[in-house]
Automatic annotation (TrEMBL):
GO terms for molecular function: monooxygenase activity. Residues 4-92 form the ABM domain. Keywords: Monooxygenase, Oxidoreductase. SUPFAM superfamilies: Dimeric alpha+beta barrel (SSF54909). This is Antibiotic biosynthesis monooxygenase. It holds the Pfam family ABM. Coiled coil: none annotated. The keyword Repeat does not apply. The keyword Oxidoreductase applies. The lineage of its organism: Bacteria, Pseudomonadati, Thermodesulfobacteriota, Desulfuromonadia, Desulfuromonadales. Gene3D superfamilies: 3.30.70.100.
Length: 117
């Protein structure tokens, strides 16, 4: 069964950055406890500290849909209302994944240097 990946990219006004980050940090652990949540993380772009990525991974579309109707997602919507521009929201279905073995297969001559990955 495919996993679902939900990503929200937000460009936060500098004067609202602290408030948005505090809100996101507060709901991370709550979302992680929801049924079907595989992971939930928040990242700041290293080239632009006002760009924030909020990423969630879900077991099933039912779990994601339940989350989208949750109080926790309502809090996230409230944080997004502080933005000047509409956030970019993407939902991706992931049918398969690969790790370091894919790099080793693509770069066999350097594979011995990747042993620690």
């Amino acid at each position: 069964m495919p996993m679902l990946d939900a990503t929200i990219k937000m460009t936060v006004p500098p004067e609202k950055r602290k408030e948005v980050l505090q809100t996101l940090k507060a709901i991370l652990v709550l979302i992680r406890r929801e049924q079907g949540c595989i992971s939930c993380n928040c990242y700041v772009d290293v080239e632009n500290e006002n760009i924030i990525f909020f990423n969630e991974e879900w077991d099933t579309s039912e779990d994601l849909n339940t989350h989208l109707r949750s109080v926790h997602f309502s809090i996230l919507i409230g944080a997004m209302k502080l933005l000047n521009n509409e956030p970019e929201i993407r939902f991706n279905m992931i049918a398969s994944t690969a790790g370091a073995e894919a790099v080793k297969a693509a770069r066999p001559r350097e594979a011995e240097n990747l042993q620690n990955y």
